[in-house]
Amino acid sequence: MASSTTPSSTIATTANRYTITAALPYTNGPIHIGHLAGVYVPADIYARYQRLQDKDVAFICGSDEHGVAITLKAKKEGISPQEVVDKYHSIIKKSFEEFGISFDNYSRTSAKIHHDTASEFFKKLYNDGKFIEETTEQLYDEEAQQFLADRFVVGTCPKCGNEEAYGDQCENCGTSLNATDLINPKSVISGNKPVLRETKHWFLPLNEYEEFLKDWILINHKKDWKTNVYGQCKSWIDDGLRPRAVTRDLDWGIPVPIKDAKGKVLYVWFDAPIGYISSTKEWAAREGKNWEDYWKDEETKLLHFIGKDNIVFHCIIFPSMLSAEGSYILPNNVPANEFLNLEGNKISTSKNWAVWLHEYLEDFPNQQDVLRYVLTANAPETKDNDFTWADFQARNNNELVAIFGNFINRVMVLTDKYYEGIVPEPAEFSEVDEQLLKELAVYPDVIASSLERYRFREAQAEMMNLARLGNKYLADEEPWKTIKTDEERTKTIMYVALQISAALAVLSEPFLPFTSEKLKNMLNFQDLQHKPTWSSLSLLSPPSGEMPLGRGGHKIGKAELLFSKIEDEQVEAQLNKLKKTKMDNSANSQENNSSEESKVSPQKETIQYDDFAKLDMRVGTIIEAEKMPKADKLLVLKIDTGLDVRTVVSGIAQSFTAEEVIGKKVTVLVNLAPRKLRGVESQGMILMTEDANGKLVFMNPDSTGVDNGAMIN
Ligand SMILES: [Zn+2]
Predict the structure, then answer these.
(1) How far is the CA of 171 from the centre of ligand 1 (A)?
(2) Helix, strand or coil for residue 693?
(3) Distance from the CA of 232 to the center of ligand 1, in angstroms?
(4) Any residues with CB less than 8 A from the CB of 449 and at least 6 apart, and which?
(5) CB 475: neighbour CB atoms within 10 A?
(6) Does position 442 have pLDDT exceeding 60, yes or no?
(7) How far is the CA of 36 from the centre of ligand 1 (A)?
(8) Measured in angstroms, how far is the CA atom of residue 158 from the centroid of ligand 1?
(9) Minimal CA–CA distance to 22: which of 305, 403, 232?
(10) Measured in angstroms, how far is the CA atom of residue 175 from the centroid of ligand 1?
């Protein structure tokens, strides 16, 4: 969609060479479905698709093994940081292989080639005078005798008020922070309030890159970047950028490669994206390629697949680094996804609220494609999305089994039964046949067009529509009936259905690689003289021209089951697992609470009846509820108080979803002075208590016969 006014280097829709990177997973834990849905499945679909277009693809990833969180994990487990990263590097790498994530290279940032590459990169910028050297006051933990940055310190986010923001970023609102920005900072190591102490660091003056970023993103990529990505970038640039330290006082990482920097390492977010370059170098050396073609040639299209929490690093910081270095190309696009939730709650590693890939495979062996399919169908492309086991079951049973699997199985079984597995020669095509074959020839371009625009859900839905079309064709034409009356007609029907099956084997490959492979074997692709490819399918000139399985006579194999039904008990088992996690979590939090404070709070000071009489409390009913955007704890409620319908903002969102409180009878303090919470005026307060597990409980009348507006006295 390049227009004459836009530079072609920024919005080239196709290229011949692609460097596709997927966010380097952080090696402090295994991989869960949120990672897969947000980054690795879409990146893999895209890489596979471009390979099917005969493009020169380098699909690059590796483990991110530096940074504070690794050293914290090591401290907690009483092992060395190296042991932590070795353990998770192999677990993560195995998960990717098992789910068919087809990286050309999977490296790690502890590799020598990476240390060398990152050091050289730093030195080049240092020698070119691109850094500011500054002695500043940083947070210091006197007990642990250590400077605190990034994840070593938590405190209140100055932007949204989240009390658990980290020293590098607030995970609630996504703001990128410096540790000294936090309100009420606390050391994660000792729990103490840190002091300020002087230390010298090197800063990349991001403010000097504002003009460059404005031109490059806000002007040149206004049309082709996703609105969520563009919007985040715009808000950072509009807020004004500040110099950012690229070094840290830490003993785990890449030593700052200059004199006078003892005890300092490169900031993990400086070295990690360079990991894409080192991983490409490692691959190129092995494959006899020139890595610079993939990073320095203007004709190469560089794409970063990431989750939304990484946008600032990939769109602001890394491009500024690349631009400072001077010889690299910039990313053509950064199609970041939003987050995937699990059964209505945010996925959390620390709370074990996740579906871990290795556990999934234990419960659903050889069903990788089912998870890939469901995660793509629900991909959080434009907003946060929810994974539920009920939806997982429904999509498997109603789509993969009932449509795709059923169609292929019928084609295979009937071909075997009627023609001993040999593709029959067609007789006369009906109008329906001709229409269908013409439609078939359009699918490769339709799917490609969605993929080129990073619309993976849409692309996969189109692929499934082709299966749907085939399934409907068989149901309408009923070859199992015509076989008794019209042999020639039956041959034509089966011929058409077989061609659709072959097209599906090719077009499903980016989404369902294991299924595609199986189907190609079933259809005996290896014996075809002209193997169907994505581009040959889009060049089909049906019905008389070249067809994917030839003009008849090709021998296919036996039917194998592609998908199997997922039973209610399997879904229940998964839900029970999550229920148990929830109970464990609340038991833990109760344990923590009881050790810190007594269970029953002491009685407050005595008041007079007049004090009590000032409180106007009424029975009301919640008639509407919705989650306050960007606030974990708040629901915005509309309450019928009998007096009026009013808005109350209530901090109950961690105990209840909006849907489950609608219709609830509640007790409302109606004459509390209104106050604004996040810009919404709250006109009253709902009375709540807590159960033994710390879950909030509504105080409400024990009879349903009480009307709204009834007074409590
Ligand atoms: Zn925040």
Answers:
(1) 7
(2) coil
(3) 14
(4) none
(5) 11
(6) yes
(7) 25
(8) 7
(9) 305
(10) 6
Q: Does pLDDT of 1 surpass 50?
A: no
If you measure from the C-alpha of residue 312 to the centroid of ligand 1, how many angstroms do you get, rounded to a whole number?
14
Distance from the CA of 614 to the center of ligand 1, in angstroms?
37
| CA of 686 relative to ligand 1 center, distance in Å | 26
Ligand 1 geometric centre to CA of 681 (Å): 21
Weakest-pLDDT range from 37-51, 310-324, 510-524, 621-635: 621-635
Residue 599 pLDDT: 47
Question: What value does the mean pLDDT take over residues 260-285?
Answer: 96
228 CA → ligand 1 middle, Å: 17
Ligand 1 geometric centre to CA of 647 (Å): 24
Amino acid letter, 53? Q
Q: How far does the centroid of ligand 1 lie from the alpha carbon of residue 201, in Å?
A: 25
Ligand 1 centroid–CA 34 distance in Å is: 21
Ligand 1 centroid–CA 166 distance in Å is: 9
- Residue type at 17? R
Say yes or no to pLDDT of 63 above 90: yes
Residue linked to tokens 């109606």: 670
- Per-residue model confidence as pLDDT tens digits over 282-336: 999 999 999 999 999 999 999 999 999 899 999 999 999 999 999 999 999 999 9
666: enclosing H helix or E strand: strand 665-669
* pLDDT tens digits, 186-215: 999 889 999 999 999 999 999 999 999 999
622 Cα–ligand 1 center, Å = 29
- Nearest by Cα to 347 from 76, 102, 29: 29
Is it true that the peptide bond before 380 is cis, omega within 30 degrees of 0?
Answer: no
DSSP annotation of 55: -
* 97 Ramachandran zone, left/alpha/beta (phi>0; psi -120 to 50): alpha
pLDDT exceeding 90 applies to what percent of the chain?
Answer: 72
Distance 80 CA to ligand 1 centre (A): 32
What pLDDT, in 10s, does the model give residues 450-484? Answer: 999 999 999 999 999 999 999 999 999 999 999 99
Q: What is the pLDDT of residue 8?
A: 36
Sheet strands side by side (includes 132-141) = 146-147, 132-141, 195-204, 244-245
DSSP H helical ranges for 288-367: 291-295, 311-312, 318-325, 357-363
What's the 147 CA to ligand 1 centre distance in angstroms?
A: 23
Nearest-angstrom CA–CA distance, 493 and 459: 27
Locus of tokens 């042999």: 487
Tokens of 316: 């602001």
Backbone angles phi, psi at 168, to 5 degrees: -115, -20
Q: How far is the CA of 632 from the centre of ligand 1 (A)?
A: 11
Query: In angstroms, what is the span from residue 50 Cα to ligand 1's centroid?
Result: 38
265 alpha carbon – ligand 1 mean position (Å): 27
Separation between Cα atoms, residue 649 and residue 680, nearest integer Å = 8
What is the DSSP secondary-structure string of 352-369? TBS-BHHHHHHHSTT-HH
